[in-house]
Design a protein that fits this description.
Helices cover 36% and strands 28% of the residues. The model has no long low-confidence stretch (mean pLDDT 74). Strand 1 and strand 2 form a beta hairpin. The chain has 104 residues and is of the alpha+beta class. The protein has a 4-stranded antiparallel β-sheet, with helices on one face.
Length: 104
């Protein structure tokens, strides 16, 4: 009888932990967008950021959220950072192109 109570108690604890784990996983949805998706949104939103037809991806590291876009005159570095709450921060830096180059 005592073994049955212990087994039943352990079963209830395991079930409760499983329910808590499932609730925690479904509460947070992973954002499937990558650095290219966010960069394309930034191009549409800010008129200062433009893609030249000569631009090409010198480096495209989607797993780490990094792009280097380059043409003959200048290059841009784009990095995607994620905050602990899942929010995204996109950093775009332009190099070259004279004194008008800047970071967004």
């Amino acid at each position: 009888m005592k073994k049955i109570k212990i087994a039943l108690t352990l079963l209830i604890i395991c079930f409760a932990l499983a329910v808590i784990n499932i609730c925690a996983q479904t509460g947070r949805k992973k954002d499937p967008r990558n650095v290219i998706d966010y960069f394309n949104l930034a191009i549409r939103e800010f008129e200062d950021i433009k893609m030249d037809p000569r631009d090409r991806f010198a480096v495209k590291d989607l797993r780490n959220g990094y792009l280097k876009i380059q043409n003959d005159d200048f290059y841009q570095e784009v990095a995607l950072f994620r905050k602990d709450n899942g929010a995204a921060i996109l950093v775009i830096a332009e190099h070259g192109g004279g004194p008008a180059a800047h970071t967004y």
